[in-house]
Write a structure and sequence with these properties.
The complex is a heterodimer of chains A (about 325) and B (about 280).
Chain A: E1 10-21, E2 24-35, E3 39-43, H1 50-57, E4 65-70, E5 73-74, H2 79-85, E6 86-89, H3 101-111, H4 116-129, H5 145-157, E7 163-167, H6 175-190, E8 194-199, H7 202-208, E9 211-216, E10 219-224, H8 226-232, E11 237-241, H9 245-255, E12 260-262, E13 267-271, H10 276-288, E14 295-299, H11 303-311
Helix pairs in contact in A: 3-4, 3-5
Chain B: H1 2-7, H2 14-17, H3 20-37, H4 39-66, H5 80-111, H6 114-120, H7 128-154, H8 163-190, H9 194-199, H10 202-206, H11 222-230, H12 233-245, H13 252-276
Helix pairs in contact in B: 3-4, 3-7, 4-5, 4-7, 5-7, 5-8, 5-12, 7-8, 8-12, 8-13, 12-13
The chains are: A alpha/beta (about 325), B mainly alpha (about 280).
Amino acid sequence: MNTSTHDDTAAISARGLYKAFGEKVVLDGIDLTVRQGTVLALLGPNGAGKTTAVHLLTTYLRPDAGEIRIAGRDAVKEAQAVRRAIGVTGQFSAVDGYLTGRENLMLMADLHLLPKRVGRRTAEELLERFELGEAGDKPASTYSGGMKRKLDLAMTLVGDPKVIFLDEPTTGLDPRSRRTMWDIIRGLVAAGTTLLLTTQYLEEADQLADRVAVLDGGRIVAEGTPAELKARIPGGHIELSFADRAQLEAAARVLGPAGGRDDEGLTLQLPGDARVSTLWPLLQRLNDASVEVEALAVHTPDLDDVFFALTGRKGA
Amino acid sequence: MTTVTATRPTADTDDTRSHALAHARIMLRRNLRHMQRYPSLTLMVTMMPLVFLLLFVYVFGGTLGSGLGGGMPPGMHGGRAAYAAYVAPGIILMAVAGAAQGTAIAVAQDMTEGIIARFRTMAVARSSVLTGHVVGATVQTLIGVSVVTGAAIAVGFRPHANAVDWLAALGVILLLTFAVTWLCVGLGLSSKSVETASNAPMFLMLLPFLGSGFVPTSSLPVGMRWFAEFQPFTPVNETLRGLLTGTKIGDNGVVTVAWCVGVAAVSYVWSRRLYEREPKAG
């Protein structure tokens, strides 16, 4: 592959990113492209290099090799220009614990050199939008994990960045806060923001991302839309459970040796999906042979299967 | 290597340089607000020299004052009042050193906060975080010095300084503050933990003792006297004493300026380097 070409219309474009800490190679030459107004999820287990990738893309660290262009600017040579275009919410809370929520937002507004009046209004709007109005005048150190995360993201939005990086935005959040965070993220996307988020949660990538890049051991092992990735792995299957060994034997005779068979668990797996045209003939044949089926489950492939198929490990 | 690449000016540093002042002011406001929200650190570093002042004037002062000999402030003849006049400049230096210790703690504390990582990915002038700390520390030091000077006057210190002397004394205090504050910013940045940062500047509190702060150096045993006469706090102490009480300054003024400018310059470069080096992978 020609590693020097960038897609000039992309909001985020990285070619051949390489980073090592001492002997340990953390990123071993990765390419990433995120088109304007889309969401890329960088999916991978702990230690895959997700955070390092975000650190390089956001100018926090410099790559040992490779090129990064954010909103058309070079992340190493024009770091300050890139910093002006991006918003970053790191994995660890980046709020000032001594300051109140409102003061934290005002601090951001001041650093963006917004006029005082605009800054105050922005802070007010963000507190409202993130349901932090009541806690706005309490020190951020007293906030719960979910509130801190929301304040953190709110601070990232001051200055209206066109490209946003979120490093594991929902790790450690309870299910309700996670839903809230997803809604907020969807809102950003609807407003046309380009987003790169990292996650260990396959469901999250599935829910939020236009494209998913699977990172494992410092390399991108797969990239595509969630649908494309799912299509890459063995299709779905139908699982039949039986009451006893005799019924299992009978069913296996009727259906032939097409699928997998589990004598211990008294189940049969057959390739197939949830369409009536698939299920109907199958059930018809079992019914004709008077085979009693205890339970039937249709398993559609999800990103977990993709992850397992690509990395040989179970996802989170 | 990382340090060199990180400090090399890039094509677009110029336009943030023009924001450096605005950003430094914002960071200063942030630091002052921290001090206001967390006054125990300020209080602690101000209390220490106050306690020493009261201890030395009221407990040891009567005896020490009579033993000052050649170190006797002009026009005084021993006793507690003479010692109060003698020890006051040393106590002021302790206040400066104590505040600097607070700065080392504040800087180390701040570096553990996630918000510093956020600043690094924002178009914020790099120097502004440290400048904010140094200017904030200077404000804090001046408050501490005023309190201590007031207390010294309350216990019998009678400076005979005219307006020019006072201004010069303020200049000396500011110069020393600048030097030890940058030194402590460096110590705070280089410390692996807040505890280390709180212990590292301890020697600064000791230096007034191992100089001319509490007793004339001529009364010290030979080896210690040699150290006392050459360590930087002694010329600063003697300059301040001269300005406030009229003792001879001699070449102490020049030596003071040289020491302070030297320590400040080296510490400034060191601190900037520590701050600009590539952060550890997190």
